[in-house]
Design brief:
By secondary structure, the chain is of the alpha/beta class. The protein has 13 helices and 10 strands. The strands form 2 sheets. Strands 2-1-3-4-5 form a 5-stranded parallel sheet, sandwiched between helices. Strands 7-6-8-9-10 form a 5-stranded parallel sheet, sandwiched between helices. Helix 2 runs antiparallel to helix 9.
Length: about 350
């Protein structure tokens, strides 16, 4: 994104994205200390929400916890399906920007009515319906977003979960990492994208994202629908070479976030040579594909990868001359609780 060009700066979505690094740099990693100790006593944390309030925050937290070997049982599921689970002995954390998301409120009402005492919420506003049902509620510092597509809130939610898990584990790495993370996110947001890459993606029939089940590629798939108005799909892990090639064609594009080095040739054989489509990598190293290089942030790479994905999607949206702030059908609150 070129922040001196009015075709970018006129959009609230771009402003929200560019505000995110500073929000993360100033994040209070100790605000959830008391709740962390309560959850530690339970030993099991169930993370729920809908769409962007679950995909990256919960899945990225699980990935980091598994990589670090935290001694805590973690699970995530969307609010409606969670209503079918036995959660009596779990601490349950519900995320909803509006605090009015129907599926999450229904779950919390069900649990509260049954006497559940370990319910926690994170919203973007004070005094919401969801917070009223929680044992303890927290509010994001990022404030209201100016566009329909959630961006800055998604990454602050992710950081909240990561700080929570660190507090539970007694592993306080985040405070010393935030300044560096902020700088690397800013670099990823403003890295120039080759116009040929932008044009290829903008002209694609289908924009697919491939990557780990850590929420990054999956969340960018959702953002592709909202920002570019293009159909998109998410290929978890190496799913992209396990049969989906049957319905892809040469006009499609696969954006591969942090490719597995030992799988690059296989993806090239199946998708580039076999289908004739284009693979574009987002990585902190060179790959055999056209690559958008980003800084390496270790186990905080997900935040930098997300910023790079936003950069790509804004360039594509600008190329297509789309109003980035106003989707045709998508709503800020997808399924609002009424009652």
């Amino acid at each position: 994104m070129n922040l001196t060009d009015a075709k970018y700066t006129k959009y609230n979505l771009v402003k929200d994205m560019m505000a995110t690094p500073a929000i993360l740099e100033k994040f209070d990693c100790g605000q959830m200390a008391a709740t962390a100790q309560a959850i530690k006593q339970v030993g099991k944390l169930f993370m729920t929400g809908e769409g962007s309030s679950r995909i990256f925050p919960a899945k990225h937290a699980i990935k980091v916890a598994l990589a670090r070997g935290y001694d805590l049982q973690l699970y995530t599921e969307a609010g409606k399906q969670a209503q079918e689970a036995s959660l009596d002995d779990w601490a349950v954390f519900g995320l909803s920007n509006s605090g009015r998301t129907a599926e999450v409120i229904q779950l919390f009402q069900q649990l509260k009515d049954s006497g559940h005492r370990n319910l926690y919420s994170l919203t973007a506003f004070q005094d919401t319906r969801l917070e009223s049902l929680a044992t303890k509620g927290y509010v994001l510092s990022c404030g209201k977003e100016g566009a329909v597509a959630a961006t800055k809130s998604v990454l602050e939610q992710g950081l909240f979960y990561q700080a929570l898990l660190e507090s539970i584990a007694g592993d306080g790495k985040l405070p010393g990492q935030l300044k560096d993370l902020s700088a690397k996110m800013t670099e990823a947001l403003t890295t120039p994208i080759d116009p040929a890459i932008t044009e290829k993606i903008a002209n694609a029939r289908l924009i697919c994202f491939s990557g780990r089940n850590d929420g990054v590629a999956e969340e960018l798939t959702l953002k592709t629908n909202e920002i570019t108005r293009k159909p998109s799909d998410y290929f978890e892990g190496t799913y992209g070479v396990h049969g989906v090639e049957e319905v892809l064609d040469s006009t499609d594009v696969v954006i591969w976030v942090d490719p597995y080095k030992d799988q690059e040739e296989k993806f090239k054989e199946v998708l580039v040579k076999g289908v004739g489509l284009t693979i574009i990598a987002v990585a902190s190293r060179d790959t055999i594909f056209p690559t958008i290089r980003i800084p390496d942030a270790g186990d905080l790479n997900g935040y930098v990868q997300m910023a790079a994905g936003w950069n790509i999607l804004i360039e594509v949206g600008a190329q297509l001359d789309i109003n980035l702030d106003k989707p045709e059908r998508a709503r800020k609150v997808g399924n609002e609780f009424v009652g």
